[in-house]
Amino acid sequence: MPEGKSIHELKIGDSAQTSKTITESDIELFAKATGDFNPIHLDQAYAEKTFFKGRIAHGLLSVGLLSSILGNILPGHGTIYLSQEVKFLAPVKIGDTITARVEVMEVIPQKNRAKFRTTCVNQDGTVVGDGTAWVMPPRKAYEK
Does the reported pTM lie above 0.90? Predict the structure, then answer.
């Protein structure tokens, strides 16, 4: 398995993204994995009576796409996700295609830390989640 980029390989402005269409199954599996069975996510009749007028995905389901990028693409394998700050700005509904994107904002080589801007946008260009994350990139064998 290839190692991800080390702190010395990251540059401010480096970015990566991935997209996923949110399905009924995604929401059900997320609810089972987390134990979050809030009816806003699972009960259409209940959700229709809310200001969302229908079911919405768990906010952290979209944020999970960011974890996928950080752990698999940039920096990639071996990365430790340290923290995430996020504002949920719009609901995600079944059938929405979410594009999650990360971009390097800050690199601190002496602490082996990198800060990323994190965003999730739907197919209409609406930002549904916006925030920042801190990670510890993997160290290369010769850096240890």
Answer: yes
